[in-house]
Design brief:
Elements: H1 3-14, E1 19-24, E2 30-34, H2 44-52, E3 57-60, E4 65-70, E5 75-79, H3 83-94, E6 98-102, E7 118-120, H4 124-130, E8 137-141, H5 146-157, E9 163-166, H6 170-182, H7 187-190, E10 193-194, H8 206-222, H9 225-230
Parallel strand pairs: 5-6, 5-8, 6-7, 8-9, 9-10
Antiparallel strand pairs: 1-2, 1-4, 3-4
Helix pairs in contact: 3-8
Length: about 240
């Protein structure tokens, strides 16, 4: 592969932008197709086919063509380094989600509690300002502290994040809804928040609640009928 193409490919991947690489299998020549140009490219159908496949590849030997789409790794931002977050982080990593823990409270956001995970001892609004949410990112607000959760939800609801969830009862979410509306979010934006968070499986313990959250997140990621029918609000 040409070094300039490789450098450009790596830059797009670092920026978490989808990018496609089309290769002529006879000559070995390759060209890079940026996400902004997917729809208008001559290989738009092939790119769409590759993105729909599990491997994100499209090989057409009869045309001497190989298309590989590089998609950002699915990511989970966990706001609030609480007990549920410890179980959720471990389970989410097993489903190949990149997990990031964000909490301004150093006593919670520590390596001793979240060994091997990326941890940011920061206010979520500060972290998300430099790490914006994209369409392959989910955010869950678990601190149960409005000063921490609300800014994260404000950022998430105006982003293309594929899943947004918040811990709390229906009563606490009603109060949260009022605060978010006062802060400028529309009813449609607030409705994107799944609260109470997670599938209604009767979960009680932190680990069980983490299972319900991850199940709902996976359903949202794959657009399953169950999650769509839930309307983004199920009990936990």
């Amino acid at each position: 592969m040409d070094r300039a193409i490789l450098a450009a490919l790596n830059e797009e991947r670092r920026a978490r932008r989808p990018v496609a690489l089309a290769t002529d299998t006879a000559s070995g020549d390759s060209r890079l197709i940026l996400a902004a140009g997917f729809a208008g490219d001559a290989l738009a159908d092939e790119i769409a086919g590759a993105m729909a496949s599990r491997s994100a590849c499209m090989h057409q030997p009869e045309r001497g063509l190989f298309v590989k789409v590089y998609l950002p790794q699915p990511r989970l931002i966990v706001v609030g380094a609480v007990h549920i977050a410890q179980s959720l982080a471990a389970m989410a990593a097993m489903t190949e989600l990149d997990v990031v823990i964000v909490d301004p409270r150093g006593a919670f956001a520590s390596g001793a509690r979240f060994d091997s995970f990326e941890i940011h001892e920061a206010w979520p609004q500060d972290h998300l300002a430099s790490h914006p949410l994209d369409a392959r990112t989910a955010l869950v607000a678990l601190s149960h502290n409005p000063d921490i959760d609300d800014p994260a939800l404000l950022a998430a609801c105006t982003s293309p994040a594929f899943y947004i969830g918040a811990l709390g009862s229906r009563k606490s979410h009603a109060a949260r809804t009022g605060r978010l509306a006062k802060a400028g979010l529309s009813a449609a934006q607030i409705a994107r928040i799944e609260a109470p968070i997670g599938l209604d499986i009767g979960s009680v313990t932190p680990a069980e609640i983490a299972v319900s959250i991850l199940a709902s997140l996976i359903a949202a990621r794959h657009g399953t009928a169950r999650h769509l029918a839930a309307g983004g609000s199920v009990a936990a």
